Amino acid sequence: MEWIIGLCLGLGLAACSGFRVFVPLLVTSLGVKLGWVQLTPGFEWMGTWTALLVLASATVVEIGAYYIPWLDNALDTLATPLALAAGTVLSTSFIDIDIPLLKWGLGLIAGGGTAALIQTGTSLLRLGSTTTTGGLGNPVIATGENLASFGLSFLALLLPLFAAVLVVGLLIFVGRLLVSRRRRTTVAR
Questions:
Q1: CA distances from 182 to 34, 124, 128, 165, 172 (A)
Q2: Domain limits of the chain?
Q3: Cα 146 vs. chain centroid, distance in angstroms?
Q4: How confident is the model at residue 189 (pLDDT cuts 50, 70, 90)?
Q5: pLDDT (tens digit per residue) in 136-148
């Protein structure tokens, strides 16, 4: 039963990596420091002061960069593979399974896949905003993503099962959005 809570916690934090790569890593580091969560063996580095300071600095830079309209779209190119990696690490760090292949495979598929799907959805949203508003709407989207990343990260730490249900709903929503967008572009051709 405990591995289900760990999977839900990892899934919730991985989804947040799709909004901002470093925010859920920072929140996890803070959660470990405050004694709210425990990581599986091999991931203790996330609870060090060095990791906390580095992740806090990276978070500040990432959040600031998303408020620059031309830079935010460029960052999305880097953020997609980074979100996949962060989502994999976050989910794997909470999955307490002794079989490494299963643990990392589940982390990659559940965590990395979730983060990549959310990141793809936010990238398309920002691209649409850039196209329709000339980039003037992007700071509003960036603020929403920041709030979603921080809010859902803390929610995942405090109520992992509830956060996992929200993430599944979000994945269904983003998945449907991507499928309907693909259908429209196929029909338009």
A1: 44, 12, 14, 26, 15
A2: 2-188
A3: 11
A4: low
A5: 888 999 999 999 9
